[in-house]
Amino acid sequence: MILLRRLLGDVLRRQRQRQGRTLREVSSSARVSLGYLSEVERGQKEASSELLSAICDALDVRMSELMREVSDELSLAELAQSAAASEPVPAPVRPMLNSVSVASVTGGPPERVTIKAPVEAVNVVAA
What we know:
Strand content: 5-15%
Order of helices and strands: HHHHHEE
Largest sheet: 2 strands, antiparallel
């Protein structure tokens, strides 16, 4: 099961780490307890929109950018989950081939050519 709070926490942690900031710095700036911010980053607590806004302000990141990154991660997680749940794709079935002989009707010596084609694709009418 994909947990949105875990994806959101992962993105928040990456944003903070990209800036080289500590949990203590961001929690102080966002006026959130260090323990609570840590739980949000680990996906153990669900962050309210007010809390997310305060954390985004502390990180100087737009909430829309944060949510876009979370959305991208969610899409990838859904694709991975879908691929893991589906059965293997069967190998393509090769059609049965019939041999059809054709005699040359040109003025030269008769030639025989054999054509192999799917049974349902060939409808030969003798003239």
